[in-house]
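Thanks for the sequence, V.! I ran Thiol:disulfide interchange protein right away. Repeating your input here for the record:
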Amino acid sequence: MTPSRLLTTLLLTLPLLACSPSDAAPSADAVKKAFTARFPDREVVSVAPSPVAGLYEVVIRSKRGVEVNYQVIYSDKDSKHLVIGEIVDVVNQKSVTGERAEQLAKKAEGEREKINFAKLPLAKAIKDVRGDGSRKLVVFSDPDCPFCKRLEKDSIAKLGNVTVYTFLMPLSQLHPDAERKSRAVWCSADPAAAWTALMREGKQPQGDGKCDAPIAEVAQLAEQYGISGTPALVFESGELVAGAIPAEEIEKRLARK
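Predicted structure:
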């Protein structure tokens, strides 16, 4: 068969493979039912047609501790095939998935529960009083985390009149030596000074770290609140914020009650 005849045959065949007007598209409820039947442990909050024919946007909600998360995936009508990725509108040069994810991120932020600051076991944290120490800030930190070091150097170092409570949270899978350093800091004669010297100047803590360091208790606390990475900051207002945010942003949040 010549290429031209093959193309003609394909063009004649395509209508047979396409949906005709008589083929009713499944409703969003039907797709949601099919998806839930296959994945009963997932909380589906919405299903809607996507810009791609035959694919449906499925929004899944999950919750860990105080954290709420929404995920966008795509499914066919029977949930036999899933697409986990990004749909890009080439004509308008925008990410359809990205725009939806931004909307859902704002929604998740509004649904995040507050942490009861008064109930945090601050005795299991390193206490560093700056100035009059009138304001309070909690930080979950890993001594080998580069973002934690950035937070200490570029943000926390600039704060005044604040008491900073640092919960040592070594992420051993990423940083194998972090727990040893955490224990050495906690067991030192002046944990606050040892921590500051390590994080800002790279000075290694002295000692063998053989004391009752609350590493396991802090890990359990982090899991309780859905904290899985460092740094994570908790403000007196109950806000939980992840990442090495600027000092100016910390100041704004410290002012909230």
